[in-house]
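Check out a protein:
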Amino acid sequence: MRARSNVDALVAQRLAGEVWPPLADRHVFRVDPDGRAFFLPGMGGVTLDVHCGDPATGHAGDHVEPGLSVRHRETAANYALQYLTCVGNVVEVTSGPGAGARGFVIGQHAYVLVDMAPDDMARVTTGDQVVVDAVGQGLALEDHPSIVVKNCSPRLLEALGGGTRADGRLEVRVSALVPPEAVGAGAGMASEYANTDLMGAYAGRGEELSLGLEGLRVGDVVALVDQDHRYGRGYRGGFTTIGVISTGSAALFGHGPGPSSVMSGPSEAFDVVLDGGANLAAFAARDWRGE
């Protein structure tokens, strides 16, 4: 049965932002897990060649942010953009050669991250203005009061699949289970802000750094085992958090592809079903090709 929610009570707002440029400082280099210095692209700007459905690992990049990296110039307005924007919200470019191009939010990192069709993305650059049709914060599941929903747009809720089972649990389809030892940077932060970096997703780095997560894709829906992200982010046995992989490869130790949290609650409240097709690429197929 389709999960009942308070979707009709939600408030939608149009939020403004702009595509932010990549930033660096005079020190240039960082250090990888083996002490080697590196300088790689990753955060900010327009990342042209990483989209939902593409591998989240194996890139020669650090904290790779797929698509458009969007923020607001004013600090308080930028926090509002981060907190109120939800995964799956529609985004439209309103200035520059790419004006009129539309995409969707795949998650939060240092910026709000937006995927769109490759041909449209090629017409967008830093400084271009965007608007986000933000809706989803305040979403609640009427038959699942123990599950806290956040960063989840109504259309993402619809796409997660499954709905309320006859036994009262919420069925959610995910592409992977993430063990608690994989959780790295981001633990302890507010779960409405940025995402959780996953360790053990370092493609080609050997067994000692492997937790079986090298196959993660951008846009994958995943279940984080023994993670409670209802009111922050931390380890709690018997809890599950559902997230969406919103960033790609990272070269810093303790960092990696990261999911934005979209719901969290006691594990017994969920029926987690493994499904290799649980990825936001389904949005891309529908939005870009009319499927």
